[in-house]
Amino acid sequence: MSSVFTKIINGELPGRFVYRDDKVVAFLSIEPLRYGHTLVVPVAEVDKWTDLDAQTWAHLNEVAMKVGNAVKNAWDSQRAGYIIAGFDVPHTHIHVFPTDKMEEYDFKRCYAADATDAAAMDEAATRIRQHLGTDTDGYVVQD
């Protein structure tokens, strides 16, 4: 059975994509720690990050760094948070989010999916895409 992330990647479930290539995608978390909280996910459905091949792992982190810089700049935050937890969805993913303090790393503080403001989520995706130079599907805009 496909993971929820595979269903989002395949368009079976909605997602606010901010980056996409043939190996890695990035889309907003529906339960964000802060607006701008993005999940960086390999297209290949691999449960544990330690089971990824070295090239995919490297590329996943390269994209996470780009997204991290985008969220940091879009929110003028001190840092970009980076967490690999891996218990909620059996599909490797990196949580990247704007942060100014350690308390913001607490998943107990996440917005519930039904408590987020849709307009604020759309605005967050737009802000990140502007810093990444990507379109509404997450693809890099060619000049």
From TrEMBL:
One of the protein's GO biological processes: nucleotide metabolic process
Location of motif Histidine triad motif in this chain is 91-95
| InterPro entries in the record | Histidine_triad_CS, Histidine_triad_HIT, HIT-like, HIT-like_sf
Q: Which Pfam families match?
A: HIT
Protein name, as recorded: HIT family protein
Catalytic residue list: 93 (tele-amp-histidine intermediate)
Cite the source lineage: Bacteria, Bacillati, Actinomycetota, Actinomycetes, Mycobacteriales
- Show the PROSITE patterns listed in the entry: HIT_1, HIT_2
Residue limits of the HIT domain?
4-107
Q: Which domain of life is it from?
A: Bacteria
Q: Name one GO molecular function term.
A: catalytic activity
